[in-house]
Design goal:
alpha/beta, eight-stranded parallel barrel, two-stranded antiparallel ribbon, binds ligand LARABZUK, RibuloseP-bd_barrel, TrpF_fam, isomerase activity, tryptophan biosynthesis, PRAI_dom
């Protein structure tokens, strides 16, 4: 099993140094879109393998990545997105497509991250769905217990808006006041902390002003009429890169 070592944890958690916030653009659904998005320079791109209007086949994702590499593109970290998958489903995708990370909800199968780490050299990002009325509630306690249990076989915590229909990509924000709790938990466990859910070029600065986040993840907020819009993708990336050098800094942040 490729267990995450303490040194790697410290490095991933920043090792005491401020790291730039990484950007993941999720829901790549075609070669041309992939080419444009990669050209805009995100740190990570995501392919949705869960039931969704953004779902792609492993064969398509593999073909697009191979084509971009042939064209000489420097690929960002590639992330396969699942909701609550069966083990065999993720295994089959990872066998077919060279992915750097899988992102999934695992409350249905708490041993899934360890099972994946035993079979594949891949990062595991655990999605923690945030429902309404979360602060201090039993859901938060359950999520914390799960994260403590899984800490040795996951690399990152991804906070996302609870989406009962498909498990992500809702375009809705969650209550950002829960973030400091997960920030300190991620620091204690040596995990990266990403935030997703309803982000867009206009609100991501406010999120970042609310406190340190290792990465931000967006899908709906960089689309126009359901299609990735390269101007919004570029604006989102620029907004995150510029954070700390523009007027966002010190805005205070807060709930969505
Ligand atoms: O994006 C989807 O369609 C999706 C479907 C099922 C599970 C997860 C999904 N997306 C996960 C992501 O990583 C999204 O970027 C994240 O949920 C944020 O989405 P959005 O609120 O649309 O920005």
């Amino acid at each position: 099993m490729t267990e995450v070592t303490e040194d790697a944890r410290q490095e991933r958690a920043g090792g005491g140094h401020e790291q730039a916030t990484s950007v993941k653009i999720c829901g790549v659904t075609g070669l041309e879109t992939a080419r444009e998005i990669v050209g805009a320079g995100p740190d990570c791109i995501g392919f949705v393998f869960a039931p969704s209007r953004r779902r792609v086949s492993p064969a398509d994702a593999r073909g697009w990545l191979a084509r971009l590499e042939e064209e000489g593109a420097k690929l960002p970290l590639t992330v396969g997105v699942f909701a609550r998958p069966r083990r065999e489903e993720v295994d089959a995708v990872l066998t077919e497509v060279r992915l750097d990370a899988v992102q999934l909800i695992a409350d249905h199968d708490p041993d899934l991250p360890a099972w994946l780490k035993r079979r594949h050299e891949v990062q595991v990002w655990l999605t923690v769905p945030i429902a309404r009325a979360e602060p201090g509630g039993s859901r938060m306690a359950a999520a914390e217990a799960m994260l403590r249990r899984m800490r040795h076989c996951i690399d990152a915590i991804l906070l996302d808006t609870h989406d009962p229909s498909q498990g992500g990509g809702s375009g809705r924000t969650f209550d950002w006041t829960v973030i400091p709790h997960y920030r300190s938990l991620a620091g204690e466990l040596g995990l990266l902390l990403y935030a997703a859910g309803g982000l867009n070029p206009d609100n991501v600065g406010t999120l970042l002003a609310g406190g340190r986040i290792d990465g931000v993840d967006v899908s709906s907020g960089v689309e126009t009429e359901g299609i990735k819009d390269i101007r919004k993708v570029s604006a989102f990336i620029e907004r995150v890169r510029a954070y700390g050098t523009d007027t966002d800094e010190g805005n205070g942040g807060g709930a969505a």
